[in-house]
Every structure is written in C-alpha cells, then in structure tokens.
Design brief:
The chain folds into two domains: about 260 residues, no CATH class; about 100 residues, Serine Threonine Protein Phosphatase 5, Tetratricopeptide repeat (Alpha Horseshoe). It is about 55% helix and about 5% strand. It is built from 18 helices and four strands. A four-stranded mixed beta sheet has the order 1-2-4-3, with helices on both faces.
C-alpha cells in the first residue's frame, strides 16, 4: 500500500515542516514493535512524525469524502479491532469515498480505507487480511523507518505541500512536493513482504481463512493484467511483483495449519455483503469515473459473476456502462446485452432502462425503445435529462 504520509498528503492535508529530531541518526537495527498505548518520546524523530500525522488527521476529519455511515464504520472497526487486539484503543478508522484500491495505517494510528478497496473485497476474511496488513505496518513502525531513511537523504526537510494520491483520484489539485523525501512515497518491498506475512498471521489468529489474501491478490493480478500496455496502476507500483506476491500468499496459505469451516466462511461472506450492499450502486458509479475501463470491466465482471441475485441488476448495469463508455470493438453489443439483463432484475438501477431503450433504438426496435424510455421517466420523474428523453420519445412515436 502507499505509505501513510503519501495517503495523507494525497488527500490534500498540509503537513508542517519538520526539524531534525533528537534521534535523527538512523538505528543499526529496526525499532521494536510498538506496544499498546505507547507514544513516542518527546523530541524524537518518531514524535515529529506523529505530530505531522496528528495535524493531518485533524484536517482529514472534516473532508467531505469521509463516509460517516455509522453501521458501516462500526462493522469495519469491529474487524479492525479483532486483528489489532490490544492495540484497538490506539486506532481510529476513516472510510474515504475514493474509487481506488488502497488502505493505510498512519504511525499515530489513523486508519484509512478507500471505498475502491471495499468494492474489490469479497468477504470479511479478505477485509481482515487487508486490515491485518496495514496493522502490521503500524505495529512494526515501518513508517518510522521510511521517515528516517528520507531524513538521511536530505539535509533540509521542507514543507510538504498539497498533492494528489496518484493519478485518477482527483480529490484535490497540485503535485506532491516531497523534496528529498521519496522514501516516504511507498514502503520498501521488504516491509511489504513482512506486512503480508504478519497481516495473514494476525487475521488467522482470529479464525479468518489463510487463503483470503491469495484470493484477493489473484483478482488484483487479473485486474492488472487487463491493463497490459497501459500505465501501471498505482497500487502495484510500490509492492513486490504481483506474480511473486501471489506465489508468496499461495505458500503461506498452503503452510497454514488451521482452516475455518466452510459454513463460517460463508457466514462471514454474507456479513460483508450486507455491510457494503447499501453503497454498492454509488461505489460502482464512482468506479467508472476513473476512466480505466479495461480494469473496471475485469473487476466488475468478476464481481458480477460472483454476485448474489439481489445485486445482479446493478452489477450488470455498471458492467454494461463500462463497455458502453469504452467504445471498443464489440462493446456496444456487450453493453446492450448487459443492460437487457439489468432491466430484468429486481434491483435494476433506473438508468439501466434509459440505456436499454437507446440500445433497442439502435437495433431498430422502436416499440421496445419507447417502452424502456417511458419506464425510465416513470421511475425518475425528476430526471435531469427528462426533456431530451421526451424529445427522443416523440421521435420514436409510430
């Protein structure tokens, strides 16, 4: 995952300039794991880092992108506390409405989870592994080690400006001004590997499936593969090579001694689905704003294949929209078929009837197009495009 500092900066949180601390000289060995309730010594480099993160967190709380739904936050925090154990009281959780796969735990315990990550998870077990990974970064003080490395590379640490978190997020403008601090843009591969192993260990200790990380990274690898020849997705840039990471998770899953009963895994899958179901339509819509349609088609396509019946109208519609917006060879036909599937489902989004209507018009079915467009206006009497749809209905009149 991107480093906590990179995430905070990416959300437009100004971090004050830091002066060298009392323990600026890098240690010969990694610092010990942080203890529950522990705070950094006054005047230390770690205290500087916490100071910046505390200020960033204050700004974070007021961002409109923070999802404040109590039920969702309570559910996610419960899983976080399961994997964090006695550290639970030191952590705060923030869900951010950002359609990217990312999560982070800052050195002061502020935990960020993007809705793009929640959309890509399939179960509580995968959520536990993801949160366990971020908790491992926090517990092992990986940010402190990266911070010290950045201080070694620059004699003067300037003010960190406003920035965006990689391409495509678009929360705020500007470019990161991290003069001499490139080491904080992502954890080292060694840190990522350690966080993978410990995160799985923390999750497995609470009874979560040891193969959850493997399932998640296999899907992410397929999403990455769908964008071959295009700019690499930011989530993969600071991590071990994807194939190597998948193999590492496969080895860890194979070596695990305990495997939870299938009925318990299924129960937790349904619990996760229930937690995110109210947000599914909005998160799928947000996904399309990234304009990375090949990746979205791969991701939503797998979600659609796995979706319970109560979701299939929404997943079919947004998969159809990804094809329609991509405008590649064969996309129009695929979009038309998916919108037809969507309107036949009980949970069909209203917009699916409009797109189905226009697909029928393109196919020469004027009567079917009239019915679908009329149904759209019936379901959405306040539609912002009502005048345009009514004009098209008049043109379709026999």
């Amino acid at each position: 995952m991107a480093s906590p500092l990179a995430l905070a900066v990416g959300l437009g949180l100004g971090i004050a300039a830091f002066a060298p601390g009392a323990d600026a000289a890098p240690p010969a060995i990694a610092p010990p794991a942080i203890a529950p309730g522990e705070r950094p010594a006054e005047g230390s480099t770690e205290a500087e880092l916490w100071y910046g993160m505390d200020r960033a967190e204050q700004e974070l709380r007021g961002l409109p992108q923070v999802e404040r739904d109590a039920a969702l936050n309570d559910y996610l925090r419960d899983v976080l506390c399961r994997v964090a154990g006695p550290h639970c009281g030191d952590l705060r959780l923030y869900v951010l409405t950002v359609p990217e796969f990312n999560a982070s735990m800052a050195p002061n315990g502020a935990t960020l989870v993007f809705t793009g990550a929640l959309l890509r998870l399939r179960s509580e077990d995968e959520l536990a592994v993801l949160l366990g990974h971020e908790f491992a970064h926090y517990r092992q003080r990986h940010s402190l080690q990266q911070w010290r490395a950045s201080k070694r590379s620059s004699a003067t640490l300037g003010t960190v400006g406003l920035a965006t978190l990689g391409a495509g997020v678009g929360l705020v403008g500007g470019v990161a001004q991290l003069a001499g601090m490139a080491g904080l843009s992502g954890f080292s591969r060694e840190h990522e590997r350690e966080a993978d192993a410990l995160g799985l260990e923390f999750a497995a200790a609470q009874g979560y499936g040891p193969d959850a990380g493997l399932a998640l990274w296999e899907r992410l690898a397929r999403e990455e593969a769908a964008t071959v020849g295009r700019r690499r997705h930011p989530v993969f840039a600071s991590h071990p090579e994807t194939e190597a990471r998948v193999e590492a998770h496969r080895r860890m899953a194979t070596a695990a001694e305990a495997v939870p009963p299938l009925d318990l895994v299924a129960e937790r899958r349904e619990r996760y689905r229930a937690a995110i179901e109210p947000f599914l339509d909005g998160w799928l819509s947000d996904e399309l704003t990234r304009r990375r349609y090949a990746a979205s088609i791969q991701m939503i396509g797998e979600l659609h294949a796995d979706a319970p019946p109560a979701w299939r109208g929404r997943t079919a519609h947004y998969l159809g929209e990804a094809h329609r917006l991509r405008r590649g060879e064969g996309d129009a036909a695929k979009a038309a078929a998916l919108h037809a599937e969507a309107v036949a489902a009980a949970d069909a989004p209203t917009a699916a009837f409009r797109e189905h209507g226009y697909a029928l018009r393109a196919a020469g079915d004027a009567a079917g197009a009239r019915d679908a467009l009329a149904r759209y206006l019936q379901l959405r009497p306040d539609a912002p495009d009502r005048a345009f749809v009514e004009r098209d209905l008049e043109a379709l009149a026999p």
